[in-house]
Amino acid sequence: MAGGVAWxxxxxPAWGRTGAAGPARRGGGGRSSVAGLVQILAVVPAxxxxxxxxxxxxxxxxxxxxxxxxxxxxxxxxxxxxxQFHRMANIYFVFVIFLQTFPVISTLPWxxxxxxxxxxxxIRGLRDLxxxxxxxxxxxxxxxxxxxILSGKSFRWQKWRDIRVGDIVRLRKESFVPADxxxxxxxxxxxxxxxxxxxIDGETNLKFRQALLVTHQELVREESMAAFDxxxxxxxxxxxxxxxxGTLAWRGETYPLDSERILLRGCRLRNTDVCYGLVIYAGFxxxxxxxxxxxxxxxxxxxxxxxxxxxxxxxxxxxxxxxxAIASGFWAKMFQEKHSYLSAxxxxxTPAQQAFFNFWGFTILLSIIIPMSMYIMFEFIYLVNxxxxxxxxxxxxxxxxxxxKARSTSLNDQLGQIEYIFSDxxxxxxxxMMSFKKCCVNGTVYGTGTGNExxxxxxxxxxxxxxxxxxxxxx
Length: 475
Fold this sequence. Notes:
Radius of gyration: 34 Å
Number of helices: 12
Strand content: 15-25%
Structural class: alpha+beta
Mean pLDDT: 78
Helix content: 25-40%
Order of helices and strands: EEHHHHEEEEEHEHHEEEEEEHHHHHEE
Low-confidence stretches: 1-30, 42-60, 459-475
């Protein structure tokens, strides 16, 4: 690699590494050791020293806790105001209030306009706060999910947020995978493991993963798990869901690793009683979180269109005020020449000055062309419509007792901008449920309404046998 040096840098915390001198222990009664050692292959510039690069890589190692919320107690007010004043309408209203602070051109006290603007900002802020509280609750629930982590020579129940790179985790049937892990072994023959990737790619069909033969044969008890001192060297965290490159070095041998050996965070264990995995990527380093990207300020198509309209209307307002101001200047000059007895009243101002003040006065008078009340009404409509979605009985799924839930108060606005829906198959939008109707066996029709509901075909005349309950084994 030109211009750089590549080497493997340990990313396991110091208290969790194992070496020739045995496992290092952390004081205070925590996990005594981490069985495996995970290394990430880092490409480092040639001018950067090895020590600096190692420190940089260790500091970039992520815990397994995730955070999808946008705000906290300290950042909510400044960030929310910053986002709100990216809307052209709010900047326009602040500009009008600023003009009202000058008594020469003011038509109303400035604080009378500040109150409705404050209401607008508060309502929008409350909407964003409600949405973010939901994200905080979701993060808390996910980070607090229970899991079994190897601690010493036995597995202990802990939470997802306690998982670190290098931990060995035991998963049971129907549980979610808490981090990207290397499959070590499972209870199935040949250490096969079946996972459902609905949360990743929407597919409900099961996919299988298989552990290396050496780990399948050697790691059969918890004691052997605790003594596992393999070294995994892998690529840096990335967003490529279907590719993985790495090696496992153990007992003097090196074994290649690919995506068929990896359990991705978000998968669900199916048809497998127990499996064991070594955590490779945790938290925001996991592939599913890498695909989420950074939280950005979202603007709907309607918001962008409204911003453009506000700019166009503001330009039209300035042009109209300019024309009226020029006309008022000419009118003032003609009026003063015609009525000389008013010269003492206008002796301190010229027609040009009067036109200048009239320009800003007309701007204030015509500023209601963009009504603030309309935006306040929009915020109320968004909030109430999100409640209507939650209350909609037609969207309630009684089979699993799941109601509709609008996770964003602006969901109604976003749904209204959908123009096309692309689907790769009908099963994405419909429910694939098949029920038995009729069938023909050896010339006889069986099924509802045929009169042969309880009749079975003769085994003597046909090699086929009829089973009314296909989920049960035949006698």
